[in-house]
Amino acid sequence: MCSMSSEQSVASTENEERIRRFLAIASHDLQSPLRHIAMYAEILLDDLAGKLDGDQLNSLQTILDKAQAAQRLTKALMGFAGGTPQVTATNIDLDSLVNEIWADLTSEVTASGATLRHGNLPAITSDAAIVRVALMNVIANALIHRGSSPPIVAIEADEDAAGVTIRVSDNGPGIDPAHQGKVFDAFWKLPPDGRPVGPGLGLTAAREMLLPLGGSIRLEHSDKDGSRFAISLPSPGA
């Protein structure tokens, strides 16, 4: 029994190191191209501002904004991978953030005929890049691991003195009880269902990056009618 526990501990540590190495290398290699994309977008905005119409200017501004957001995310990942995560607390409009993520997933939404449902979500104070990563991964998974019906993704948030819990539900086929304990394991993926899948790091990275915030992510419920993930974030100073 003790031997097995020791082996599991070693395996867990090795997995964490693999995650950190992967994130460090990927984040480092992305910094240069992202910096150049942002730089050239700024140059084009300065040089062509008087020659482009409103839609074209908006498109260039969107490229710049997305590149800068990706730069902030990769810096956060590098900090996490180096063991010195930097948390930047800002005001986050959850309504706007969820809608931005949905827009970023346009190709997946169009291909699946997905629908997003959410009421008025609160404004919170937290690290926007990290919260985006957590929400993006859960929402993207709902679009990828879908059933025969078009996906319906529902998002709600509950606030109290301790913080906020964001719940993301879907109408997918659910996760087999035998696999539910593995969804946050590094490099683990659901058995293939004919659709392309990623490297199996999304939920793992989301969980690890939420830790410096004092936050967490968990699979709250899953059966044949769908799954529900809960992201908990503490109130500032809690």
What letter string, H or E per element, gives the SSE order?
HHEHHEEHEEHEE
Strand content: 15-25%
Note the total helix count.
Answer: 6
Number of strands: 7
**What structural class do you assign from the helix and strand content?**
alpha+beta
Average pLDDT across residues? 82
Strand order in the largest sheet: 2-4-5-7-6
Largest sheet: 5 strands, mixed
Roughly how many Å apart are the termini? 38 Å
The low-pLDDT segments are none
**Assembly state of the chains shown:** single chain
Radius of gyration from the alpha-carbon trace, in angstroms: 19 Å
Helix content: 40-55%
**How does the overall form come out from the CA principal axes?**
globular
Outline the fold blueprint.
Layout: H1 2-48, H2 54-81, E1 89-93, H3 94-104, H4 106-112, E2 115-118, E3 123-127, H5 128-144, E4 152-160, E5 163-170, H6 202-210, E6 216-223, E7 226-234
Parallel strand pairs: 2-4
Antiparallel strand pairs: 1-3, 4-5, 5-7, 6-7
Helix pairs in contact: 1-2, 3-5, 5-6
